[in-house]
Write a structure and sequence with these properties.
- 36% of the residues lie in helices and 15% in strands.
- It is α/β, with parallel strands linked by helices.
- It has a five-stranded mixed beta sheet, with helices on both faces.
- The longest helix has 20 residues.
Length: 234
């Protein structure tokens, strides 16, 4: 029928159907009426088994660390010599307590895969953590020197983060977006084999975490895109 029970209503049922076909379902109604569906079972992924010769040759790791600042937000940045695995962790402040708190998970990642961090290279700002990371040695460079590996990595990560933030077109970005950009830049840097690394066909992420190579299906939405997703359940 093409009639409506509302008095003086200029719209018909066919108008509503055409609107639904052109514009899709009403987003507000989907948000208000959709019930939570049973989540899909996440498939388990076996960890990549490291070739024995990698641990035999590169078991002892030298870790380079430094502080990284983007838009006034500080991060603890680490990169291992030879393996070239990077980590970045947001810091609420630059106190000794926070430095140790963010550094502890990094040590655990390497130890879980059978690596041993024998030496940490840093500038004099990290002198305060020396007794707390023993038996790992802390090698502090002189006042006018810097650790080359982490300084170059700082530059690369900051350039990538700035590119991601500029791609959003926003004049101002919240801290959460800066942290997200930093996480994405670090993840992408670790996800692919690096020239000069210990293995030409295995990424630093796979070596240290055991994760499989990245899935292209996880890169369909660009950073900073506003997305509303509705999965229709038949």
């Amino acid at each position: 029928k093409n009639s409506t029970p509302l008095i003086n209503c200029p719209f018909t049922v066919d108008d509503v159907r055409r609107s639904y076909h052109i514009y899709g379902p009403i987003i507000e109604a989907l948000k208000g009426k959709t019930t939570r569906a049973r989540p899909a079972v996440v498939p388990s992924q076996p960890l990549f088994q490291l070739p024995s010769y990698i641990l035999d040759t590169h078991r002892h790791v030298t870790l380079c660390i430094d502080l990284l600042s983007v838009n006034g937000n500080y991060f603890l940045h680490t990169i291992s010599r030879n393996i070239r695995f990077r980590t970045t962790s947001p810091l609420p402040n630059r106190s000794k307590k926070q430095l140790l708190r963010r550094l502890a998970p990094v040590f655990q990642q390497y130890h879980a895969r059978g690596f041993e961090i024998d030496e940490v290279l840093a500038d004099n700002e990290f002198q305060c953590i020396e007794p707390d990371i023993l038996p790992t040695r802390l090698n502090v460079v002189s006042r006018n020197e810097h650790v080359g590996e982490v300084e170059n990595s700082n530059k690369y990560i900051k350039q990538t983060v700035r590119s991601l933030l500029c791609s959003t077109g926003a004049r101002r970005v919240p801290k959460a977006m800066v942290v997200g950009a930093m996480d994405l830049a670090t993840t992408c840097a670790n996800a692919f084999p690096i020239s000069g690394g210990i293995f030409d066909s295995i990424s630093p992420s796979t070596i240290v975490t055991g994760r499989q190579p990245p899935n292209f299906n996880n890169f369909k939405v660009t950073f900073g895109t506003f997305v509303q997703i509705h999965i229709h359940n038949n």
